[in-house]
Write a structure and sequence with these properties.
Helices cover 28% and strands 24% of the residues. It is built from four helices and six strands, in the order βαβββαββαα. Strands 1, 2, 3, 4, 5 and 6 form a six-stranded antiparallel β-sheet that branches. A hairpin with a 4-residue loop joins β5 and β6. The two termini are 21 Å apart. The N terminus and C terminus are likely disordered.
Length: 148
């Protein structure tokens, strides 16, 4: 998605505690408006504990369709539009770092995507507000006002 001046929209990231970010992920998972993408893990180096130390940073990727519920019994026209890629899709990344009890939600398509998800996914806006209010980290760049 791009802005009117031709530049790409800047991703918005909400950083907070794992339990708060997990609430935002659960809001998406409670609907039928997403597909789950690749789940990866990134091992970190621990000079004292060694390479076998069990801490891992997890990433989950979702393609969210805020206006469309996906199911096996959806109308044929909607299914064809979804397969053709003509239904709006928003990219959302969840990063979990269990060592530091820190996690983040990154919405790739900018503030307009955040507002669409707030409108289309029940509870998502409240979950982002909880992340913003409870964050003990610097989030000045990333937390826009979501009031309608």
């Amino acid at each position: 998605m791009s802005k009117s001046n031709g530049r790409k929209a800047k991703p918005y990231e909400y950083v907070g505690r794992i339990v708060d970010v997990r609430t935002a992920e659960d809001c998406i998972r409670a609907t039928r408006k997403y597909t789950e993408g690749i789940v990866s893990q990134r091992r970190t180096q621990h000079p004292i504990q060694g390479d076998e130390f069990p801490s891992v940073v997890f990433m989950k990727y979702y393609e969210v369709y805020p206006d469309t519920e996906l199911s096996w019994d959806m109308p044929a026209g909607t299914a064809i539009r979804w397969l053709a890629g003509s239904i709006e899709c928003l990219d959302v990344l969840f990063w979990y770092d269990y060592r530091a009890n820190r996690a983040s939600v990154e919405v790739k398509n900018g503030i307009t995507a955040v507002k669409k998800m707030t409108k289309g996914i029940p509870g998502f806006g409240a979950a982002l507000k909880t992340i913003k209010d409870g964050a003990s980290f610097s989030t000045e760049r990333v937390c826009p006002d979501l009031t309608p």
